[in-house]
Amino acid sequence: MTPAKNRSFLFLAAFTVLTAASGAAKAGDVAELDILGFSQDGGIFAFEEFGVQDGSGFPYANRYYVDTATDSYVQGTPIRVRIDDEAAGLQAARDKAREQGEAIVKQSELAANRGYTAGSNAVTELSADPLRMAVNPRPVFPAIDKPLEFRLEILPFGEAEQCHGMGEASGFRLLRIDATDGGMTQLVHEDKSVPQSRGCPTGYSIGAIQTFSSQGSPSHYAVLIAVRKVGFEGPDHRWMAVTGKF
């Protein structure tokens, strides 16, 4: 290789490395969702989000236990575990969170009453409507249940203290549409402000609908919502749930 060609090759190689590094630096962290299930009577819904933090490289696992009657967290939850060691394995964080969760609802009970994932869209899905999901609540054909349909509306709240000048915070409104009753709309959830626990959320999408039915108790649903927020190296994604009965 001639000196001129050698210099060109080295420049191209260096540019490629820098470009790749720059792209990696802008990558946020997307928490993986694991739907754990319901308590036996449907009174509690639980799910886990886990991953590796962008920036720090620390593994984390968060478990959420929601009282389905009040759509609020069970006392003593969420359970949040982060291991401040880049060399620590992700499974170690998940095991620690699971151990703490046993005091709330046994893992075996959740697994036995997981319910049914009636609809699901990954945050990487490009062809689906991120603000609307309509499902048959159970895999029964012909259907014996009325369809469940939810629509998400983004609510701009402008600049917020937790955004630190890096964006404008958004909340959301969740509506349930009853297409079989003349399109009646029911308000399920509406943010009046953005909780500090969400960080600086800039967008939302419907990620899944989980349903649960058991003999002698009402049928329950949980709408899993992906929260896109400002992260250290790019947009992060976390999860929350809105629960109710049908």
From TrEMBL:
Annotated protein name in UniProt: Secreted protein
Record carries keyword Signal: yes
Signal peptide as annotated in the record: 1-27
Keyword line: Signal
Species the sequence originates in: Aquamicrobium terrae
